[in-house]
Design a protein that fits this description.
single chain; alpha/beta; 7 helices
Length: about 200
């Protein structure tokens, strides 16, 4: 399976670091083009491939790590989202509910990418913590997942494990997924909860 990260800000780079740490090849794209990524750290260069947005969107699994409103530009860059799995790592903090039509933010992202299957993940921790070694003496850092398609959630959970984290499913987007979706000026209850799961 081909992976890509859309967004080279702090969260995108934190995730790229984890791919490189586990020797998993991943494409990385932003709105400025691959030339802006030419000076990647040496530790990332072997496994993190700068790409155009068009090329990155050819991956089967796409990590969306952009400011919330930028998801519209990403969505518009691909005509057919059929068969794609999108990991929504965005946060809609500060976005008026009226702009979301009263819907959870992930529902808005999913609607912009018809045909894709969306899983909410990697948005509840600051980038500095996401970039840290996922495993410690206390276990593996928990990553919360929410999605409406069980097969897609399982695929994302497998990736989360490959990256060294512990996947924790919250259920459907409109149910447990609300625990990791900011609303207006309020952070959801599980955002910033840095938890570890003991290996059994």
């Amino acid at each position: 399976m081909r992976y890509s990260i859309i967004g080279s800000g702090s969260v995108g780079m934190a995730l790229a670091t984890q791919f490189a740490r586990q020797h998993i090849t991943v494409g990385l794209a932003n709105s400025r083009g691959p030339d802006s990524l030419a000076s990647l750290p040496v530790a990332l260069a072997e496994h993190v491939i700068p790409q155009t947005l068009t090329d990155a969107l050819q991956a089967q699994l796409i990590l969306l790590a952009v400011p919330f409103r930028a998801h519209r530009d990403v969505a518009a860059a691909l005509g057919d989202w059929q068969g794609k799995i999108v990991i929504d790592a965005t946060n809609a903090y500060g976005i008026p509910l009226s702009e979301l039509g009263g819907q959870p933010s992930s529902a808005v992202v999913a609607r912009a990418m018809p045909g894709a299957t969306l899983v909410k993940a990697f948005n509840h921790l600051p980038a500095a913590q996401l970039a840290q070694e996922p495993a410690s003496a206390g276990g593996r850092r928990a990553i919360f997942l929410a999605g409406d398609d069980d097969a897609a959630v399982e695929t994302v959970a497998a990736l989360v494990q490959r990256l060294g984290y512990a996947p924790v499913s919250l259920g459907k987007l409109a149910e447990g997924g609300l625990l990791v979706q900011a609303r207006e000026q309020q952070w959801a209850p599980l955002i910033f909860q840095d938890l570890f799961k003991k290996d059994s």
